[in-house]
Design a protein that fits this description.
Main location: cytoplasm
InterPro entries: BABAM1, vWFA_dom_sf
Keywords: Cell cycle, Cell division, Chromatin regulator, Cytoplasm, DNA damage, DNA repair, Mitosis, Nucleus, Ubl conjugation pathway
Number of helices: 3
Structural class: alpha/beta
Number of domains: 1
Order of helices and strands: EEEHEEHHEE
CATH architecture: 3-Layer(aba) Sandwich
Helix content: 25-40%
Strand content: 25-35%
Subcellular location: Cytoplasm; Nucleus
Protein name: BRISC and BRCA1-A complex member 1
């Protein structure tokens, strides 16, 4: 730290060193319940904007996709930093006719497995869940003290009403 004197007072200038940006593996999980249909365009646009922004910040970030109906299924097997892969995955989203209560246990198991792989490569795993069901609370059987990955949830729901309490 460099100290300067100005009119008899000490004036310190501070330098804040930039921190390195960690390489992230980002797993998007998109709810494909029928309640999601009206929100697909917004979800797709936000994912594409997010991916382009993240790759501008750090071209080493990688992305994979899964879908949620009653449980999680993998859509893209490998993480990729190719925008074409993201566009193809996003175009592949379509709603199901199933309306069973969702279980996030499979998502958390998948994320834990991928987090271990990411960590071995010096990367961080982030899971971003787009959840769209206004009347159903998801279930899971997963210990809350597990700190293997970061979970972000975008909750897109209907306006509250007598049959809907998001």
């Amino acid at each position: 730290m460099e100290e300067q004197r100005v009119e008899g007072k000490a004036n310190s200038s501070y330098n804040l060193e930039p921190l390195p940006i960690s390489n992230e593996d980002i797993l998007f999980c998109i709810d494909i319940d029928p309640q999601s249909i009206t929100r697909f365009d917004a979800i797709k646009q936000s994912i594409l904007l997010f991916v382009n922004t993240k790759l501008t910040i750090n071209p080493q970030h990688r992305f994979a996709f899964a879908t949620l109906s009653n449980s999680v299924s993998s859509l893209m097997k490998e993480f990729s930093s190719k925008v074409e892969s993201t566009i193809a995955a996003v175009r592949g989203f379509s709603a199901t006719t199933s309306t069973t209560q969702p279980d996030l246990t499979t998502l958390f198991q998948l994320a834990a497995r991928e987090a271990r792989k990411s960590r071995m490569q010096g990367r961080i795993l982030r899971v971003i869940l787009f959840y769209c069901r206004s009347t159903e609370r998801p279930q899971h059987q997963w210990p809350e003290n597990q700190r293997l990955f970061t979970l972000d949830i975008m909750y897109l729901h209907d306006k509250p009403g007598p049959d809907n309490c998001p």
